[in-house]
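not sure who needs this but someone in the group chat was asking about Winged helix DNA-binding domain-containing protein from Streptococcus minor so here u go. i didnt clean anything up, its just raw.
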Amino acid sequence: MRSLTREEILSQRLTKNGLTQPFTHLHHLLPAALGIQSQYLHHGLFNIASRIDLSNNQDISNCLSDAILAWGQRQTYHFYDKETWQKMCHFLAEERLWVPSYFDSENLDLAAASQDLKKRLNQPRLRSQLVQDYGAAWSKLFLWSALFLYHSRQGQLYHRWLPHDRMVEWQSEALPVPENLSKELLESYFSFYGPASLADAAHFFGIRQHKIAPSDLVDLDVFEYQGKTYYAKDWQDNAKIPEVVLLGKFDPLLVSYKHKDILIDPNQQSSVWKKAGQISALILIRGKMRGTWTMSVNGQNISFKVVTNQKLSQRQQARTRRIFRDYARWIHKTIKIISFELA
């Protein structure tokens, strides 16, 4: 069994993620990534933009026209292609959701609320219209998106992105169960996120590690890193670590692994994975965390602030500005300011 270095693992992950050579189109990225987590929509969009060739996807509305927003692994909100979302719903069908217990605790009738929502969605509705229609009842029925999450994970409900809103759609037809689904999804995970461990894969899908069957791993490459077994598929011989990488909040590289030391040194992890579940947006220089960044959107204006523990070179600042400008152009925003500060 071949032993790997941290640099080899990280270069494979960055390359397979599209951060050295971007994906040509979004419809290639989303199934490969098994979705892009996006509870913060602007950061979800940023994490998409950093992985696709924006010269081929200059109009954001056209780029996202076939994408959906739905709840999947870890009961979180993702951009998906529809087929991957349907597969994820099947794969995670036995997982207990928190929504029924929440409705019981609030003395709410989940069956009645579900039937009412289905009737309201006999045709697609804007999310903002639903908020108005439900009035005071919205705050309880949709706390943490409860009713949306519940039906999305059953393969019944999803959203579509709009520039200033989201369209909510109900899907009534039953979803077919693909053959060899668990093997297919695990191979997809290790192809895009590998090399990674079984513990990493279990964390990504939100399942117990013992649920992963050895028969689903037979076509994967096997490696060793610090005494742990790592798996990968589609090894990239020309993988490299870019000089500058920007990761938005909840970037796939920040949410898809149990073992975090490969990307972030242990003494820096508390500044990335915060209490209350927050995850910072990061700037990496040659594969090492150099600092964090934030974005602020106000109407048509967008601003960025980068805070680093060591001053960036002129070239690194120029690359960072270019990434932010490309994103702002893609979402049709005007940059107000890009600032760099030392922590």
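also The mean pLDDT is 97. if thats useful
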